Fold this protein.
Amino acid sequence: MLRVAWRSSQLAGGVHERRAAMYTWVCMESREVNAIIEKSSEQGRKDSTVEVTPELLAKYDKPGPRYVSYPMAPEWRADFGDSEYRVALKRASEAAAEPLSVYVHLPFCWQRCLFCGCNVIISKRQDVSQKYLDYLYREIAMTAAILGDRKTVKQLHWGGGTPTYLTVAQIEELHDRLAEFFDIAPDAEVAIEVDPRITTREQLAKLRELGFNRVSMGVQDLDPAVQKAIGRNQSEAETRAIFAWCRELGFSGANMDLIYGLPLQTVATWERSIRAAIDIRPDRLAVYNYAHIPSKIKHQRRMETFERPQGPVKYDLFALARRLFMEAGYRAIGMDHFALPEDELSIAMDQRRLHRNFMGYTVVPAADMVAFGVSAIGEVGGVYAQNEKRPVMYYKALDEGRFPTLCGIELSEDDTVRRWVIRQLMCNFYLSFAELEERFGVHYDTYFAREEADLADFYAEAFVERREDGLHALPLGQVFIRNVCMVFDAYLRKPGHFTNFSRTV
């Protein structure tokens, strides 16, 4: 029988370990910090160029999961609903001393960006958001009632949509309602996604006053022609103003999201955007691969007339961004993130305790994440559960006293093992054989004999190296890390499995 561990008390890199690591970092003398940063920068310059040939792209750039979850959403069951979610919450309540992550989905946007695949509501009538908030509060209260004494929150994230669609008063109201049911830890990561086109200094000041310490903003690309093609006109001046306000107000982190593979992007225009981003100097950057799936995301069809970089040309954009960011002192984190050497993500990566959930890469070790709002996805009590995507169905469920659960899945023992393996590779580019056996009571060579045989090509391509202690993803393999993880995905072996994923590179 496998030993399945899902409580964060059993996870490596727990709360006390993280605090000790941060304390050590803070107490270092400046010359030691500078030495670490210089070493990281030197390594970044060394690893900033990875030769990816057209042959490798032709062979490995194919549709594949991003592994924000395992199993991926297409495997979740439509008959997973209110009763199953209640059982999961009750199970999670038994670990009262363990921290939680909380995600709140605020779906409203003033206008639609044509590249976007998020669940959003386009409206300029702000009164619709108050009705949504009133129902959101019902869901929060129902969840908290079952969780009981499990109240401590170590990670809080507001996503969207555009959370700063809310008024200042609504922002404060939502925060206060969450604080009524949950205890937000003094050292919690409290983050929000903002749109520089509509976010005001007054909103940022209120967020900082409420304890928000990290801001993430979509930029995508700073070239005007690209912005026009994707329906997102956002000046560089607006972007710079938001970063300046965040620093002035004392946010500990201001992050930027970029996307490569968008219509009309060229190496020359993309380089100008990257150099502007470097000059702004965000603490973290995410450089996402644009997923063009017009069969599923119908508004993307409006961009079909524009030429999009694909294949080797598309990869050249990511390679350029990677090289320039690393030459500028950033470190590559996971498959598509970059962080300054002094950022806690960089520190966590060095200590192999980087974690990933639906909110992105994090150092927070909370094993359970509760999620509120339409389409929100939670990971709690050994299950994944997603809420109704349509507001009318979300409201209907809550009116009937039910959780608005649309679908979900309870993880099997095998799912739990494979999820941990995939996350280790995605986050830390490393799989420890000893830790695998300690956590789950399984021996790598026995449990993954078939997968080990399938890794032969990746060993030959210098994607992965097997050492005595475990598997190590090499720089080239880090580019193709999704492909490496697909080897460990049992669902991809099933006949008729879902294939409509974004491309891996």
The domain at 47-71+412-495 is CATH 1.10.10.920 (Arc Repressor Mutant, subunit A). The first helix runs from residue 15 to 27.
